[in-house]
Backbone:
C-alpha cells in the first residue's frame, strides 16, 4: 500500500467516524431532528405565524425521494467529471498536457 | 441554514433579497464569462456545482443530538472564486425551495446571502489567508471548505437574530440562542466537509493538473524532460 492510498483511506475513515460516533455514543436517546426545523418550531412556539406557504410541499416519503434525487444528481455529475478527468489522464500517459499554445 | 418559507418578516425578506440579488447577477455573468473564455472549465464547473448539490442534500448527525447538512460551496469558491458560487448556490436553494419545501421563495434572498454569498467568500478568504501565510494547498483547502460551511450557519443565526431579537436580552441574546442551535451542531459537520474537500482536491491535483495550474491553484510544474522511469 502506497503512502497516498494510506492517507486517502485514513481521511475516509475519519469522515465516517465523525458521523458514526455521534450515533453510537448517543445510544438512541436523541431524535437527531434537523436544526432548521428546530428553529421553526421555536419561532412558532413564540407565537410567530408564517405569512407565506410553500407552493408545493411533497409528502414525507416523496420528500425523502426528492432529497435522494438531489443527492443522486450531484453524485452522478461529480462521478462523471472525475471519471472523465481520470480517463483523460490515463489515456495520455505523456502527462502535463495543455501546455504549449501561444 | 434554510430559513423556512414565510418565516422572515416581509421587510427582512425584501431587504435580504435586495442584498443578495446583485451578487447572484454578478455571479451569473461570472459563470457565462468563465465558460465562454475557458470552455475547458466547464467540466470542473460542473464538479463544483455537483459537489454543493450532493452535500446540501445530505443531513448528517452531530454530537448535539441534532442533525444538519453541509453546504459544499467551498471547493467551487476556491477553484473559480466566490462569484461563481453565488449563482450555483442559488440554483441549489431554488431547487430545494420549489421541489422540497425546504427554504422558500420569500426567504430565498436571505438564504442565498448566507449560503451562496457569505459562505463562499468566507471560505475563499480562509483559503487565501492560509496560502498567504505559507500554508500548503491541502491545509488551505481544509480551512476554506470548513469555514464556508460554518460561516453560512453563523450568517443564518445573525439573520434570525436581526428578525427576532430577544424580548429581554435583545439582539445579542437572540444571536446566542440561534448560534446555540446552529453553530455548535455544525462544527463536526464543517470538519467533515473540510476533509471531503481535501479528498476532492487530492483527486483533482492528480487528474486535473492543467486546469488547476491555469486557475492558479497549483504552481505550474517546471518542464520535466521525461527521460527514464521514476
Residues:
Amino acid at each position: 500500500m502506497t503512502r497516498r492510498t494510506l492517507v486517502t483511506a485514513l481521511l475516509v475513515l475519519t469522515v465516517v467516524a465523525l458521523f458514526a460516533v455521534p450515533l453510537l455514543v448517543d445510544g438512541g436517546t436523541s431524535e437527531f431532528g434537523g436544526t432548521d426545523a428546530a428553529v421553526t418550531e421555536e419561532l412558532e412556539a413564540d407565537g410567530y405565524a408564517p405569512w407565506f406557504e410553500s407552493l408545493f410541499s411533497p409528502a414525507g416519503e416523496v420528500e425523502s425521494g426528492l432529497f435522494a434525487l438531489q443527492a443522486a444528481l450531484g453524485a452522478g455529475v461529480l462521478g462523471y467529471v472525475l471519471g472523465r478527468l481520470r480517463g483523460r489522464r490515463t489515456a495520455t500517459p505523456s502527462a502535463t498536457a495543455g501546455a504549449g499554445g501561444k | 441554514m434554510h430559513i423556512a418559507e414565510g418565516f422572515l418578516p416581509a421587510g427582512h425578506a425584501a431587504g435580504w433579497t435586495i442584498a443578495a440579488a446583485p451578487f447572484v447577477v454578478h455571479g451569473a455573468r461570472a459563470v457565462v464569462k468563465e465558460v465562454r473564455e475557458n470552455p475547458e472549465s466547464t467540466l470542473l464547473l460542473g464538479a463544483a456545482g455537483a459537489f454543493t448539490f450532493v452535500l446540501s442534500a445530505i443531513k448528517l448527525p452531530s454530537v448535539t443530538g441534532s442533525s444538519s447538512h453541509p453546504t459544499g460551496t467551498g471547493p467551487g469558491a476556491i477553484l473559480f472564486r466566490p462569484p461563481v458560487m453565488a449563482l450555483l448556490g442559488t440554483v441549489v436553494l431554488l431547487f430545494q425551495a420549489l421541489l422540497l419545501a425546504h427554504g422558500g421563495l420569500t426567504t430565498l434572498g436571505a438564504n442565498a446571502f448566507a449560503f451562496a454569498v457569505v459562505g463562499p467568500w468566507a471560505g475563499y478568504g480562509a483559503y487565501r489567508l492560509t496560502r498567504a501565510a505559507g500554508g500548503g494547498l491541502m491545509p488551505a483547502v481544509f480551512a476554506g471548505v470548513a469555514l464556508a460551511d460554518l460561516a453560512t450557519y453563523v450568517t443564518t443565526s445573525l439573520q434570525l437574530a436581526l428578525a427576532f431579537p430577544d424580548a429581554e436580552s435583545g439582539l445579542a441574546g437572540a444571536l446566542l440562542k440561534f448560534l446555540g442551535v446552529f453553530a455548535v451542531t455544525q462544527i463536526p459537520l464543517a470538519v467533515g466537509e473540510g476533509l471531503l474537500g481535501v479528498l476532492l482536491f487530492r483527486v483533482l491535483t492528480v487528474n486535473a493538473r492543467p486546469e488547476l495550474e491555469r486557475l492558479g491553484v497549483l504552481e505550474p510544474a517546471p518542464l520535466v524532460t521525461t527521460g527514464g522511469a521514476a
